[in-house]
Structures are given as structure tokens and as C-alpha cells.
């Protein structure tokens, strides 16, 4: 029986060398399966340069101008987050191929890509749906894509003094942080920036968010975990009269007096997982739990 016709949008990391032979093998595999392959424009140009020739693909796209059955991210977690921002509410499952280092989101190794694609064609895989959060302001900032899969951070600018962040959750005042910033993290982002600031690890699909301060002035301040159905309102004061708001690392300068609201987004990001993928096994491996530093 002939393979079912599938289409793929491919994103890649343009800032470092990729395993070109494995990329070529993947494209050759998809060509033999008669798949329609669309590649992000900048990544396509770099591949053509590095491979010394044009690639046999169905098309090239910019931004989020694609409609495919699957998206493939070739890179690290940063590349995956960029792909997720382009997929947005399209409901397209994303396959993350880890050509970076740590790789919590990009969990398929380069040598496993063809096996993963085999599993896609026979339907032998899982899909995890991950919650997304949205930043809203009363200004024109972040109108293009105000959604974060990992986290939203409110931060001081450059070498400015600490900022004051007044936090309300569900309409109730919580605390005013004096700190270098505040990270609002999803469970997906709990192993990223939040973790490096002492935030909790939250299991995916647990329906919670964490508020983790960055270098708080008071040692009594600790991270707070809340339900992801609760709206968070932030009012920021700064000596520089401005601050940074970062959505999955994409930052903008925001004027003091701007009210920031963070709430659960109306859609989820769908991540393709192999059947043998186990979350706690990944944590043990990536964070080296139980490793003996004396060895």
C-alpha cells in the first residue's frame, strides 16, 4: 500500500554548523516517501550554500506562512521555541531534533530522525499538549506574537537598580517584589530560566504556573506556584522609568506605568514524543541526578 501523503515545515538553526549529512538523509527519506517539504527561507538558503546546490523541496516560507501536517525543528530548545512561535495556534505537532546541547524540548537525537519518521508514518508515537501563556499590555508591545511556551520574564534594564513589581493573582494582591526581575513560568519552562533562579521543576500538564523572583532583595521571598487558570497582574516601577518584558527570550523595552497581564492562552502547543520517552528519565539524564562527581 502506498504511503499516505504528508507535509512537513522545517525550521533550523542558522547560527552554527548542523550535521549536514543527517539533514540530507532526512530530506532524501521524505522525498522517497513523496512528502511535501517546506523549509524556512533563511535556513533553506544556508543549507543550499553548505550543500553546494538547490534542494528538492515543495516550497520555501517566511514567518508563519505555512500549513502542514507536521513541523520539524532542527537545533536546540531555542530553535524549538522559535518554531513553536511560528506554529502558534495552528495545532500542528512539532518534532524536535536535538542538534544543540541540553534539549528538553528537542528530544529526538540526530541519529534517531529516520526511526522517528518511520514511526510518524505508521502512527506509532505520542503527542503531548503543553500549555502556553499570553502577555497583554495597554500598549502596542508584543502585538505580533504575545505567547510563551516557556516563560515570560519582567526584568530590569542593563545595569539599572532593582525594580519594584507589584503582583496580584486572581484579583488579590500578593506581594511587591524588590528584585532584578520576576519569571512567570509554565511547566515546560520550569527547567529553563526559572530553574536557574531557584524555581521549582513542574511536571508537564500539571495545570500550574510558577512565579520566581530574580535576585530578590529579601531572603524571605520564595517562588510561588499557582493554578494556570488564574490571571496575573503586574505593575512595575523603575528608577530608569522603563523595564524589559521577555517572552521566551524575545525582549522589548516597556515604559514604567504599563500594566502587564499574564494569563493562560486559548491554545496549546503539541509536541511529538516517541513511545519510549519518559519525563523523569529525561530529568535524571539532563540534570545528571545521581551522578557521582568524584568519578
From TrEMBL:
Protein residues bound to NAD(+): 77-78, 82, 150-151, 180, 191-196, 215
Catalytic reaction list: NAD(+) + ATP = ADP + NADP(+) + H(+)
Compartments where found: Cytoplasm
SUPFAM superfamilies: NAD kinase/diacylglycerol kinase-like
Active-site residues annotated for this sequence: 77 (proton acceptor)
GO biological-process terms attached to the record: NAD+ metabolic process; NADP+ biosynthetic process
EC numbers for this chain: 2.7.1.23
GO MF, one annotated term: ATP binding
Main location: cytoplasm
InterPro entries for the chain: ATP-NAD_kinase_N, ATP-NAD_kinase_PpnK-typ_C, NAD/diacylglycerol_kinase_sf, NADK
Alphabetical UniProt keywords: ATP-binding, Cytoplasm, Kinase, NAD, NADP, Nucleotide-binding, Transferase
GO CC, any one term: cytoplasm
Cofactor or coenzyme needed: a divalent metal cation
Job of this protein: Involved in the regulation of the intracellular balance of NAD and NADP, and is a key enzyme in the biosynthesis of NADP. Catalyzes specifically the phosphorylation on 2'-hydroxyl of the adenosine moiety of NAD to yield NADP.
Family: Belongs to the NAD kinase family.
Protein name: NAD kinase
Organism the protein comes from: Prevotella corporis
Gene that encodes it: nadK
Amino acid at each position: 500500500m502506498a504511503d499516505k501523503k504528508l507535509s512537513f515545515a522545517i525550521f533550523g538553526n542558522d547560527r552554527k554548523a548542523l550535521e549536514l549529512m543527517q539533514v540530507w538523509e532526512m530530506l532524501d527519506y521524505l522525498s522517497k516517501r513523496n512528502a511535501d517539504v517546506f523549509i524556512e527561507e533563511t535556513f533553506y538558503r544556508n543549507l543550499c550554500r553548505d550543500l553546494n546546490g538547490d534542494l528538492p523541496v515543495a516550497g520555501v516560507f517566511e514567518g508563519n506562512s505555512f500549513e502542514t501536517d507536521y513541523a520539524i525543528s532542527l537545533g536546540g530548545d531555542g530553535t524549538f521555541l522559535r518554531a513553536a512561535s511560528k506554529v502558534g495556534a495552528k495545532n500542528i505537532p512539532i518534532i524536535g531534533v536535538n542538534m544543540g546541547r541540553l534539549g528538553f524540548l528537542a528530544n529526538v537525537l540526530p541519529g534517531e530522525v529516520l526511526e522517528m519518521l518511520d514511526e510518524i508514518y505508521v502512527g506509532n508515537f505520542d503527542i503531548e499538549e503543553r500549555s502556553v501563556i499570553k502577555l497583554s499590555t495597554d500598549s502596542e508591545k508584543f502585538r505580533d506574537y504575545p505567547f510563551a511556551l516557556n516563560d515570560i520574564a519582567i526584568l530590569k534594564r542593563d545595569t539599572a537598580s532593582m525594580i519594584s513589581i507589584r503582583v496580584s493573582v486572581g484579583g488579590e494582591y500578593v506581594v511587591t517584589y524588590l528584585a532584578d526581575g520576576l519569571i512567570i513560568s509554565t511547566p515546560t519552562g520550569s527547567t529553563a530560566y526559572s530553574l536557574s533562579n531557584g524555581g521549582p521543576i513542574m511536571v508537564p500538564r500539571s495545570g500550574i504556573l510558577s512565579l520566581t523572583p530574580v535576585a530578590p532583595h529579601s531572603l524571605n521571598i520564595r517562588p510561588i506556584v499557582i493554578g494556570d487558570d488564574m490571571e496575573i497582574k503586574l505593575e512595575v516601577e523603575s528608577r530608569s522609568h522603563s523595564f524589559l518584558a521577555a517572552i521566551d527570550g524575545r525582549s522589548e523595552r516597556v515604559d514604567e506605568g504599563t500594566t502587564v497581564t499574564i494569563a493562560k492562552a486559548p491554545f496549546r502547543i503539541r509536541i511529538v514524543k516517541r513511545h519510549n520517552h519518559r519525563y523523569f528519565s529525561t530529568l535524571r539524564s539532563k540534570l545528571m541526578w545521581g551522578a557521582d562527581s568524584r568519578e
